[in-house]
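Standup notes
- DV: blocked on the single-chain target, sequence here:
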Amino acid sequence: MIAEKVFALQKYLTPIRRRYPWFIGAALWLGWLLSIAAGLFSGNNTDRFGQLIGTDFAAFYTAGEIIRTGQSPRLYDPDLAIEIQTRLYGFESQNFNPYLNPPFYAWLFVPFAMLPYPASPVMWMALNLLFLLLALKALGVSNPWSIFFPALTWLPAWSAISFGQNSFLSLFIFAATYHCWRKQKYFAAGLVA
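- DV (later): unblocked, structure below
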């Protein structure tokens, strides 16, 4: 019954309608990039609307900065985090992104905290694009590029990248675990997980 309904919907997927996600995705990415460019030209680390570039990444960057500067006991101190994020904004802001991950995860962001903002979130975003591609390969997709680019037209994928989230790192870890398990490398699968 479900197959019949899916088949019935196929008549609506004309070649022109199959291009819609590409147009919408391109508009989304272009609008975001133009907003970032406009914000950077204003001389701070925000987009055109005053949002910090890689908004969610700010929490990771803050954790990396706290560890890098030898203040690890204050990893979850909101006053210190607000102080660091105020410096990132370059002005007083009501926005605050607390670090909510386990302490051991913060070490991953120490190298990113060594980079200036906004180069740091841009590097993280590029790395997450790589994680998406590697996850597709680990899942056994024969031509990962055929999935990679259409995936970027999907709003959640754009959100994960543009906000600087760690979604694709998590996806890669799960995919790598699955890959090892499928190859019957159970110890490696457990180690990756």
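- Follow-up: Residues 52-115 form one domain.
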